[in-house]
């Protein structure tokens, strides 16, 4: 972090400014940072780091770690405990992240998107919906019908 904040050996603290800390702003691992110069001779750096939230299988097949806001985190470990997001067709990664966050209490294992909808596999079953609003509205069906496939439509819920 010292390097990213521009706090390199031999830097002259009286000339420390935002331009020296640009490395913090460009790092995908840094969500936010506050750099405070304290006189007479100190610089405080407070950093909030992004943490891996999900694994994303890119269209080319490679798997990378994503932060909760969708930022790719290069070099991150990819534990199997993180939900796996994947899909095809138009990019719906933001929708998949939204579903993984919204259904987090159900222990989401994977979220797959297609042009027709989103499928979330949880510890308690599988749920599909073509509409995010209805998916959230009827997500409680996951608990009501454990180990079942649940399809949520605008006109109702189908359990298989």
Describe the structure.
This protein starts with 21 loop residues before the first helix and ends with a strand. The protein has 160 residues and is an alpha/beta fold. Strand 5 (84-87), helix 2 and strand 6 form a beta-alpha-beta unit. It has four helices and ten strands. It has an eight-stranded mixed beta sheet with strand order 4-3-5-6-7-8-9-10. It has a two-stranded antiparallel sheet with strand order 1-2. The longest helix has 10 residues, at 93-102. The mean pLDDT is 86.
What is the strand and helix layout of this fold?
Layout: H1 22-26, E1 30-38, E2 42-49, E3 54-57, E4 63-66, E5 84-87, H2 93-102, E6 108-114, E7 117-122, E8 125-129, H3 132-137, H4 141-144, E9 148-153, E10 156-159
Parallel strand pairs: 3-5, 5-6, 8-9
Antiparallel strand pairs: 1-2, 3-4, 6-7, 7-8, 9-10
- Give the beta-strand count: 10
Largest sheet: 8 strands, mixed
Distance between the termini: 51 Å
Q: How do the strands line up in the largest sheet?
A: 4-3-5-6-7-8-9-10
Q: What ranges have pLDDT less than 50 throughout 5 or more consecutive residues? A: none
- Integer average pLDDT: 86
H and E order: HEEEEEHEEEHHEE
Q: In terms of structural class, how would the helical and strand content be classed?
A: alpha/beta
How much is the radius of gyration in Å?
21 Å
Q: Give the overall shape, derived from the CA principal axes.
A: elongated
Strand content: 35-45%
Query: Treating each run of at least 4 consecutive H or I residues as one helix, how many helices?
Result: 4
Q: Helical residue percent?
A: 10-25%
